[in-house]
């Protein structure tokens, strides 16, 4: 006979409380806002799914979502290959390993708003190092407060500078875990450097790369501080990414209902893409 | 297929070796005949893997030359030496199928596809992995993975030598035996020179026709398993091979006689040389228990099935004997007799008796 009792629930309770206050309560608050209208004074009117419909039909939302996907896509196709290349060219042992690792980790240690401010000053046309160099030394017109293209180049470059290290460090961890025997066997089998990469290094890096891409996707898809400090979403709306737009609606216009509906849609998209990506990447392992 | 000659080979992992101790390999001169099955036996750190990596070309020796059929290959990279190597941990290409794994070395050398298919089928049949050809290699069990890495070595029909670097380390004990006999069978079928590195005497003795015993970067003896067992050239070989190993007992030379703990010991033949540290070596299998002889006290009796290992003390020296009678008890006073034709004298570790004829 198995003794059955409900005591186990007490052990789970602390975690459940933690999760509740961490995630459930805030999300349900947002859900609550998303189906109501308020004019302040804590008075709410039932609105049903109107806000969701309004957001999904809004051109403004479509434009911001498009910019968001473009941003994430661009930084991923730059940061992932670049990170792998840097990881491959880093030394595997000796004096330079810690030097490289620390140098690589430095950008990630800088607070996000500081990164935005740094790049803002760096690119000022008359006093910023990069801005001055481009405009006055090289004679290339470069002002990201005026030119949307320059603004895009700057936020992408900034993100690449800030976060490629993450891909580098994770790939490097994957690379150093490959036993020497694999490389020796490949040498004996007459494999070219490309084949070594394709059949040994890449498969062994797959797990860490999946994690790296997922992290970079989620982070870049939800990015707010750096572009906000750097461009404020401008010039015009050209760098207004989803999160910046969301804050404009929620805090700028104080439209809590639509902002809440937009948050939930935003969250659902992030979740869906992450799930799709993870499922696709790990599909082969189950076979 | 080729004869392999190692000539005055020395290797050090240090940039400027000064003394003998700096060398991982000290002066190796060796010929491996074509088609032989060799084992390289020695404890961990004796230099056997270094030697193997030098033959395969993964390491360039500090001094000396390597010849394959009198052709100097010392400076050739591994892929141009036509060798195959199987590592301690199975190396397989995870994302490929078993078939692609086996074909990999051939495709890298631009062998025509129809010939690749034929070779792969032949090797797969030999290794009994035909039914797994289309599964992904990462799903195989360790012993099958190791078979595949062997297969990648054997698939090229022009290999000079196949080298095994402790290939059974990660294999379950009951499969070790199977894989070992498979190896032996493969050797008879493909007739390639095979070198098998191990620290396990059973593996070495069952696989090889000739066993090379190494210690601290030196070759101490080359011989057939029987030779190594019966007449170790060095106390290290005596001790390392056999279970339990040879009894190595401190002895004193007194005129023409050799004394062990005060008792005269009869040797297989006249002693050679003079001076140095002298020891008597006799295998436990040839130590008998009798009514007269060297007085000893039994300290432990372990019954290991068909016979018993009797541990005794003669004075302050432990002597082991393997006997059929287990009816001895701890503390019992007995006498030991050494079979003269199996009793050898060692001077500074090296054998110093003439063989009985």
Automatic annotation (TrEMBL), chain A:
Residues 65-277 form the ABC transmembrane type-1 domain. It is a multi-pass membrane protein. CDD domains: TM_PBP2. The chain crosses the membrane at residues 9-31, 69-88, 95-122, 160-178, 207-225, 260-281. The keyword Transmembrane helix applies. It is found in: Cell membrane. It holds the Pfam family BPD_transp_1. This is Carbohydrate ABC transporter membrane protein 1, CUT1 family. It comes from Thalassococcus halodurans.
UniProtKB/TrEMBL annotation, chain B:
PANTHER family: ABC TRANSPORTER ATP-BINDING PROTEIN (PTHR43875:SF14), MALTODEXTRIN IMPORT ATP-BINDING PROTEIN MSMX (PTHR43875). Belongs to the ABC transporter superfamily. Gene3D superfamilies: 2.40.50.100, Nucleic acid-binding proteins, P-loop containing nucleotide triphosphate hydrolases. GO terms for molecular function: ABC-type ferric iron transporter activity; ATP binding; ATP hydrolysis activity. The keyword tRNA-binding does not apply. This is Carbohydrate ABC transporter ATP-binding protein, CUT1 family. Residues 4-241 form the ABC transporter domain. The keyword Repressor does not apply. One of its GO terms (cellular component) is ATP-binding cassette (ABC) transporter complex, substrate-binding subunit-containing. Pfam families: ABC_tran (PF00005), TOBE_2 (PF08402). Keywords: ATP-binding, Cell membrane, Membrane, Nucleotide-binding, Transport. It comes from Thalassococcus halodurans.
């Amino acid at each position: 006979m198995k003794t059955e009792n409900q005591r186990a629930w007490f052990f789970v309770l602390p975690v459940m409380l933690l999760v509740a206050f961490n995630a459930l309560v805030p999300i349900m608050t947002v859900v609550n806002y998303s189906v109501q209208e308020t004019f302040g004074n804590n008075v709410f009117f039932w609105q049903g799914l109107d806000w969701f419909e309004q957001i999904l039909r809004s051109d403004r939302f479509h434009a911001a979502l498009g910019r968001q996907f473009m941003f994430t896509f661009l930084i991923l196709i730059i940061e992932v290959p670049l990170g792998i290349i840097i990881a491959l060219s880093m030394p595997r042992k000796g004096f330079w390993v810690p030097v490289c690792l620390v140098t690589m980790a430095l950008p990630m240690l800088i607070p996000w708003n500081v990164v935005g401010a740094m790049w803002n000053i760096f690119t000022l046309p008359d006093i910023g190092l990069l801005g001055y160099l481009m405009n006055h030394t090289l004679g290339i017109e470069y002002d990201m407060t005026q030119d949307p293209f320059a603004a895009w180049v700057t936020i992408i470059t900034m993100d690449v500078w800030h976060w490629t290290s993450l891909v580098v460090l994770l790939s490097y961890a994957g690379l150093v875990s490959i036993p020497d025997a694999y490389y020796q066997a490949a040498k004996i089998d007459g494999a070219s450097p490309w084949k070594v990469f394709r059949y040994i290094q890449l498969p062994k890096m797959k797990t860490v790369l999946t994690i790296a891409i997922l992290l970079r996707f989620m982070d870049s898809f939800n990015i707010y501080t750096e572009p906000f400090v750097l461009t404020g979403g401008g010039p015009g709306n050209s760098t207004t990414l989803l999160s910046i737009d969301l804050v404009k609606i929620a805090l700028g216009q104080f439209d809590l209902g639509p902002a809440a509906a937009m948050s939930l849609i935003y969250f659902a998209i992030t979740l869906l893409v992450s799930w799709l990506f993870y499922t696709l990447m790990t599909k082969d392992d189950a076979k | 297929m080729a004869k392999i000659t190692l000539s005055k080979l020395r290797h050090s992992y240090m940039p400027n070796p000064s003394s003998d101790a700096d060398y991982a390999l000290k002066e190796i001169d060796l010929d491996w005949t074509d088609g032989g099955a060799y084992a390289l036996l020695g404890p961990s750190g004796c230099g056997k893997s270094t030697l193997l990596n030098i033959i395969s070309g993964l390491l360039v020796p500090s001094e000396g030359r390597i010849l394959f059929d009198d052709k100097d290959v010392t400076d050739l990279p591994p892929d141009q030496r036509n060798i195959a190597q199987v590592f301690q941990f199975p190396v397989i290409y995870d994302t490929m199928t078993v078939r692609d794994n086996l074909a990999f070395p051939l495709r890298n050398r631009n062998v025509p596809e129809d010939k690749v298919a034929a070779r792969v089928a032949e090797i797969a049949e030999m290794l009994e992995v035909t039914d797994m050809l289309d599964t992904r290699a990462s799903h195989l069990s360790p012993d099958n993975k190791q078979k595949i890495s062997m297969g990648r070595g054997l698939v090229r029909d022009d290999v000079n030598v196949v080298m095994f670097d402790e290939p059974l380390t990660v294999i379950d004990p009951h499969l070790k035996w199977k894989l070992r006999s498979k190896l032996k069978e493969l050797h008879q079928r493909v007739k390639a020179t095979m070198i098998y590195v191990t620290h396990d005497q059973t593996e070495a003795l069952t696989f090889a026709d000739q066993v090379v015993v190494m210690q601290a970067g030196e070759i101490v003896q080359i011989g057939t398993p029987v030779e190594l067992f019966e007449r170790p050239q060095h106390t290290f070989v005596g001790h390392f091979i056999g279970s339990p190993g040879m009894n190595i007992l401190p002895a004193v030379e007194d005129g023409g006689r050799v004394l062990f703990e005060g008792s005269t010991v009869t040797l297989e033949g006249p002693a050679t040389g003079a001076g140095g540290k002298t020891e008597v070596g006799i295998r436990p299998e040839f130590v008998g228990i009798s009514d007269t002889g060297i007085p000893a006290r039994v300290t432990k009796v372990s019954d290991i099935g068909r016979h018993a290992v009797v541990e005794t003390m003669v004075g302050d020296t432990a002597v082991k004997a393997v006997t059929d009678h287990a009816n001895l008890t701890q503390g019992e006073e007995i006498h030991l007799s050494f079979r003269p034709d199996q009793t050898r004298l060692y001077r500074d570790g090296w054998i110093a008796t003439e063989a009985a004829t």
